User: Which sequence fits this backbone?
């Protein structure tokens, strides 16, 4: 039963991807991309990846669509011109590569085979040692924040760089001084009563749910990335409903940049404190008298740093797109 | 049945190539970025499909010590990181596309390169 | 037994209404009529499907969570439909048959 559902979802994924590439209207393509992300999140959930499904839904279907729509508003072009031409050489290349990859997949173990090489060696060790070393339920969070903390540090720095990069590229923006632009910035969607009322009712719950995911990430699906994306979406919703000026007032730029850097700094600080206390970089066991409590403390702090940086970077990227005058 | 067990990987190959086609063949810059996003999602699908174990559940240990089959948590961690890196790339790419549009007046690749070709 | 039959009926009806919504969104002529069809999925499809699942879950924490999800969906679905229709109206969708005549702005 689940197999049939999974196969249907995968087929829909291919159909949606073809539709994204083929359709000439850019707005339609972005909306189809959002549907694609949501279908991908459902597929991840069927494949037992709860954390990844949550992240894909929050970031792929949520934040990515917002950024695309913000960019489309600035680009102000409806159609992709020259999209009707069929290019034969690229089609031939990708057909050949697709056949080669499909031919190569026949050597792979079938889906779900417990004796596949990927399930030997490291993974059973993580599954055994997580309850012993840190008494944490969510193995993915434990691996992300403790066993493979160095990777996650690199990734926090990547999202920080992206937020900074977007702010710098779109920095000398001509603020939208046209009458329409200033009206939009001042009032947002205030004239539209229904979205405003419903949105204002929902925003506290959105932020609350984001905070729940942040602090509950050790016991269930959740963690810093999902929480950061969801809180960012709540702030973006407020900025859309009340106007860009009000949105900027929630997290003024100095605070925003401070949060972006502060989260990454918190992460590095936890690592360095570990070194100062006699362990290795990002070794949490020395953070407290009891190694298990030390691991849990380290993971909580590190996930907090991740959540702070992800929230502020995504909000900064949104503000960079929202503040700018659309191209002529 | 071995054939159905490989369907995920065939869908991965198809999505990979659809995304790649958009990147290399479509002249519109936003379409290229959408294709890149599809390409990245295809890679996520590959890793998460490899992590699935028959009869397993999400790797969240409710009662320690109970023998239970879990899906492999390691690819989940890698893909969590990759999703965030993906959106970072898309955000930066979109910022550059907005600037290109303002400077060149168009986001079609052939129109942007036309002045260089005529010289 | 009765609960099972009832939940089966609700799930089947919910699926039927979602299918009808999708069919309408494809086949109806213009944006406003398609919004009518899509809003069918929003309200009745969600209500019946989640109701069927809640009957399966019985009296447990899962039911409370499903009720919360239902509440949020019922709030955001019609709002999204309203925002979409409003945006179409404001952007003067003149080509739509049956659309209000463009104001003289």
Assistant:
């Amino acid at each position: 039963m689940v197999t049939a559902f999974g196969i249907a979802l995968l087929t829909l994924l291919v159909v949606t991807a073809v539709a994204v590439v083929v359709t000439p209207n850019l707005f339609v393509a972005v909306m189809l991309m959002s549907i694609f992300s949501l279908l991908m999140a459902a597929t991840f959930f069927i494949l037992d990846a709860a954390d990844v499904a949550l992240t894909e839904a929050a970031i792929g279907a949520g934040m990515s669509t917002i950024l695309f729509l913000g960019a489309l508003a600035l680009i102000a072009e409806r159609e992709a011109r020259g999209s009707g031409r069929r290019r034969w050489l690229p089609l031939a290349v990708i057909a050949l590569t697709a056949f080669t990859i499909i031919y190569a997949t026949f050597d792979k173990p079938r889906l779900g085979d417990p004796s596949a090489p990927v399930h030997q060696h490291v993974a059973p060790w993580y599954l055994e040692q997580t309850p012993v070393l840190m008494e944490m339920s969510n193995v993915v969070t434990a691996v992300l924040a403790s066993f493979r903390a160095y990777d996650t540090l690199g990734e926090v720095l990547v999202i920080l760089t992206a937020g900074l990069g977007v702010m710098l590229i779109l920095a000398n923006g001509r603020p939208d001084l046209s009458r329409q632009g200033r009206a939009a910035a001042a009032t947002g969607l205030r004239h539209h009563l229904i979205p405003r009322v419903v949105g204002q009712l929902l925003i506290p719950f959105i932020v609350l749910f984001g905070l729940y995911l942040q602090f509950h990430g050790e016991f269930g699906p959740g963690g810093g990335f999902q929480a950061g994306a969801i809180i960012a979406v709540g702030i973006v919703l407020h900025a859309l409903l009340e106007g860009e000026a009000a949105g900027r007032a929630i997290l003024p730029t100095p605070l925003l940049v401070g949060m972006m850097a502060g989260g990454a700094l918190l992460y590095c600080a936890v690592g360095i404190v570990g070194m100062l206390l006699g362990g290795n970089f990002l070794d949490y066991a020395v953070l407290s008298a009891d190694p298990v409590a030390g691991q849990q403390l380290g993971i909580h702090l590190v996930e907090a740093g991740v959540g702070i940086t992800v929230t502020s970077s995504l909000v900064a990227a949104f503000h960079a797109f929202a503040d700018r005058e659309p191209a002529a | 049945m071995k054939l159905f067990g490989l369907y995920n990987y065939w869908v991965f190959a198809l999505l990979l190539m659809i995304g790649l086609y958009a990147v290399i063949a479509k002249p519109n810059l936003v379409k290229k970025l959408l294709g890149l996003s599809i390409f990245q999602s295809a890679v996520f699908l590959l890793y998460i499909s490899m992590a699935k174990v028959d009869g397993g559940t999400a790797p969240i240990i409710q009662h320690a010590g109970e023998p239970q089959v879990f899906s492999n948590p390691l690819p989940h961690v890698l893909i969590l990181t990759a999703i965030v890196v993906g959106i970072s790339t898309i955000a930066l790419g979109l910022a550059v596309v907005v600037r290109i549009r303002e400077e060149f007046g168009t986001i079609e690749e052939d129109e942007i390169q036309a002045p260089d070709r005529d010289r | 037994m009765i609960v099972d039959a009832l939940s089966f009926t609700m799930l089947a009806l919910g699926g039927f209404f979602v299918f009808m919504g999708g069919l309408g969104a494809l086949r109806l002529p213009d944006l406003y009529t398609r919004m009518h069809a899509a809003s069918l999925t929003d309200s009745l499809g969600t209500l019946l499907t989640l109701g069927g699942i809640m009957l399966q879950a019985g009296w447990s924490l899962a039911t409370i969570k499903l009720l919360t999800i239902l509440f949020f969906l019922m709030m955001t679905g019609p709002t999204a439909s309203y925002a979409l229709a409003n945006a179409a109206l404001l952007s003067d969708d003149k080509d739509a048959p049956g659309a209000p005549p463009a104001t003289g702005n």
In short: Chain B has a mean pLDDT of 88.
